[in-house]
Amino acid sequence: MDCFSGKVWHHLPAKEVLEVFQVEPDKGLDTLQVKWRTDEFGPNSLTARRGKTKLERFLLQFHQPLVYILIAAGIITAALGEVVDSGVIIGVVLVNAIVGYIQEAKAAGALEALANSMITEAVVIRSGSTRRVAASELVPGDIVILRSGDKVPADLRLVAIKDLRVDESALTGESVPVGKSADLLPQDAVLGDRRNMAYASTLITYGQATGVVVSTGDCTEIGRISTMVSEADELATPLTRKITSFSHILLWAILGLAALTFAAGVLRGEKAADMFMAAVALAVGAIPEGLPAAVTVILAMGVSRMASRGAIIRKLPAVETLGGASVICSDKTGTLTENQMTVTAIFAGRASHEVSGTGYKPEGSIEGFSDTDQALRTTLLAGLLCNDTRIEYLEGGEKVIGDPTEAALIVAAGKGGLDLEAESKGLPRLDTLPFESEHQYMGTLHDQGADTPRLAFFKGSVEAMLDRATMELLPDGSLAPLDHAAIRAEVERLGLGGMRVLAMGCRELPKDASSLDHGDVASDLIFLGLTAMIDPPRPEAIRAVQAFHRAGVNVKMITGDHAVTAAAIGVQLGLGIQTCPGQPTCQVMSGSEMALMSDEELIAKAADTSVFARVAPDQKLRLVMALQNRGEVVAMTGDGVNDAPALKQADIGVAMGRGGTEAAKEASDMILTDDNFATIEAAVEEGRGVYDNLLKFIVWTLPTNVGEGLVILAAVLLGVALPILPVQILWINMTTAGCLGLMLAFEPKEPGIMDRDPRDPRMPILDSELYIRIMLVGGLLLIAAFGLYEWELQTTGVQEQARTVAVNVFVMVEAFYLFNSRSFTRSPFALGLWTNPWVVAGFGIMVILQLAFTYVPFMNVLFGSAPIGLLPWLKIIGVSILAFIVIEIEKWLRNRPAKAVRA
């Protein structure tokens, strides 16, 4: 499709744009032109991108090294005739694949949601007549008429405008509706500043306009976003990358040990067939069959806990990924802020008044308010009555019908005790002078009663009011000459705080006046006061930012708002930026600045910048990629269509559940049900707990596999019978993983989990200290199991009893070691035995199963076990307690230097 590359529509005069498309605004295209252009440009819809089929997504669940090992183990055990054991292993693989497929299937709708956002109708002029057509039938050059409430059906260059305001928040992040103009704009104007353009999927909130279609389908801004979403990398999470790397190491270690076992036995003169079976036994023992299931269960537990705290996880690995985030890039509006404009200061009667309370709830007060202060009260009254918005207070919250700026004025008046219904009865409206962008003000005419002059209220830009006013109202109701310098100084002060400032004015008109026109505002206005408003930061977001900084996580705010507003909110949030005299945005990077940077420059500067303003969708994506290039684990939050590419590219995308678009939700890994940034802090905390528990399980389970492999290897090297059989190895691995290891999924988060830095994503899943722990416990299992096996064999001469003792050594040492594994630094006695009752329950269940393994006849037949006496049990319990003590001593020695340094 030809997207008219090189055409900068906002920089071309409207007349020239019409000439490019060979169309007249009052006639539009004719039927043949529409047909030709439909053939040339295609429908006004987004091209569906080919995704993976359901079968492909399912088969890819098996494309993991650890799964290859398990499948091989299943095949080998089946070849050995152990059908039940083979079925258990293959069953574990299938369950993991099904869970992964279901989670992934939920994430396949990002492009469909983007496409659905363009399904609408449009009013066009064709062949000189006005008609309504499906938006998909629009072609470049169509003349489209826009009215309040319409969704813009394509990208338009506006040619005629009347008081048009457009909600572009989903596309640009601009927090308030944008006033539009048909005037020519500079070529380098960023997306949010292109006032003479209307973009597909945005909403008309006020006024009307006529525009010519300049881009359709994939060539629109939303189409570009769709392409970016489809082309964004499907990143493996840090957890899946580490598990994959760890699995590769494990795969080669197992194959190497199996080959060594086979070779050593053959060199000793043993039969090759027997040595092959020994090698198979070693491979089966070394494979942690319970690991995939444990990973799934531990992540699923994290999903459940996060859901209870307002975070819905769409992809299982995302649970852990958020816990490892080193940078959180957050949208401002509605995430870090209330998304509710709030009047925070009023200047009236030459005095400043702070206003407390946030949002649209009528809660708060005005500092120094008095009913006798005529200047302050009349300023509030003007904002209340010169207003076309209303607020509905519903059970689920407040609903604004109209402009959020006007809603803020209504709430401020309510804090001063003014009621809209009562004041409207006392001063009924007679006429309205609508806001027009060229005049920058709105006016209303009110009846004060019989034989009384009519009263006109005005609100608008400061310049519009000051140019027309000569006097100002004082608190006692008297008038004084207007002090322009004092007002401009106050406007500058408020502006440095990132506030939007409106001016209020009034004048009396003849008592027979019934209408209002611009001549009534030309001069002799009485200046009433200023109202300063901002979308304030959420108090809980401020606390969350502080918590993230303590946790070593950088927070970066990305917004479509102007740099001054962004800087002010950044300061209030505590993002580490400071205002500079005369240069309030010195530490804010704008989208226009970013556009001039090379990738290398952006990568270098992105880490040291906390606030990014007037950022376009592709720049959000570029920023995320720059941070990832630095090795950061990036979490990205957003709610608009413009956020979708960056949400998909980020290591974890977080969408808003209430105010977020479907495109943002479908591109995300996690959805916040309360749209609250503080919930991300809770989710990060849960994610860290999930990773801790997962690591505890791995460090708990691997010593069993190491010990089993070493026992088999030692038996082959010594030329003795295997102390444990393959089927017994499977019993140990599967039952201990299910009854003992999975209990670590319920381990509560350790104190101080949010007071440590995020782990380095480049570090392997296990460090040298944990490898030492694994080898230590594996060595203890080798000594204890092989030693008691030989002792029992020498004492009784019964092979089955000796092997039963060896199996019970493995299980009981693992059971006691489970209590060691509840913390890498603290003893189980310091944690408290009942802080995780599931561990105690798992221990009890495992004891019952081992008694059945040892004494139940059919279990003896199935697993080759045999009953043993009291003395072997005492030996088993003794070595288990000894192993527990040795590991606690190792833990104490390893953590003693760190404690000394901290002290």
Automatic annotation (TrEMBL):
GO biological process annotation, one example: potassium ion import across plasma membrane
Residue ranges crossing the lipid bilayer per the database entry: 58-80, 86-102, 249-269, 275-300, 697-722, 728-746, 770-789, 801-819, 831-858, 870-889
Record domain Cation-transporting P-type ATPase N-terminal: where: 8-82
Coiled coil ranges: none
InterPro entries in the cross-refs: ATPase_P-typ_cation-transptr_C (IPR006068), ATPase_P-typ_cation-transptr_N (IPR004014), ATPase_P-typ_cyto_dom_N (IPR023299), ATPase_P-typ_P_site (IPR018303), ATPase_P-typ_TM_dom_sf (IPR023298), ATPase_P-typ_transduc_dom_A_sf (IPR008250), ATPase_P-type_domA (IPR059000), Cation_transp_ATPase_P-type (IPR050510)
Matching SMART domains: Cation_ATPase_N (SM00831)
Locations listed in the record: Endomembrane system
PANTHER family cross-referenced by the UniProt entry: P-TYPE ATPASE (PTHR43294:SF20), SODIUM/POTASSIUM-TRANSPORTING ATPASE SUBUNIT ALPHA (PTHR43294)
Similarity remark: Belongs to the cation transport ATPase (P-type) (TC 3.A.3) family. Type IIA subfamily.
Protein name: ATPase, P-type (Transporting), HAD superfamily, subfamily IC
Top-level taxonomy: Bacteria, Pseudomonadati, Thermodesulfobacteriota, Desulfovibrionia, Desulfovibrionales
